[in-house]
Amino acid sequence: MAIASDSGPDRGTVEATREDIQDSLGLVPGFWELNDEDLVNEWPNFKRYALEETEIPAKYKELIGLAIAANIKCPYCQHFHKEAAKMHGATEAELNEIAFLASWTARYSSLIHAMDYDIETFKVEFGKIGEHLQDQMADD
């Protein structure tokens, strides 16, 4: 049995959120036409990670987003992250490298899964590879 609740955001909070979206983006895109509670809850995270400084520089966040978008086959995400990466200075060479890396990760994931390769063996082998690479870097 569902219990009715009036604990949603008040009108002032909803309107302040819409005004913040308008001020931040220049308009309130149609995809932000969420119910009031979702709008108020979702916008701060979107704003923080898409528009503000975080631990990961903006260009890298957008390149990561583009690689993910390519793998989940989302044209909306692909367009958003590619254009945002360009706005943050991504070069054509970087965009091309991300396209390759997105396919590379998915390809090796498919290969290893199709082999039904043991994850514990993989972890041990990767640990040994990591040690070897660190030793090589220390020698340089």
Describe the protein's topology:
Elements: H1 11-25, H2 36-51, H3 58-72, H4 75-87, H5 92-114, H6 119-139
Features:
140 residues; mainly alpha; 6 helices; elongated; Carboxymuconolactone decarboxylase family protein; AhpD_core; AhpD-like; CMD-like
The multimeric state of the shown protein is single chain
The span between the termini is 66 Å
Number of strands: 0
Low-pLDDT segments: none
Structural class, please? Answer: mainly alpha
Give helix % range: over 70%
Largest sheet: none
Strand content: under 5%
Q: How many helical stretches?
A: 6
Topology pattern, helix = H, strand = E: HHHHHH
Estimated radius of gyration: 21 Å
Q: Name the overall outline.
A: elongated
Q: What is the average of the pLDDT values?
A: 93
Organism: Haloferax namakaokahaiae
Protein name: Carboxymuconolactone decarboxylase family protein
Pfam families: CMD
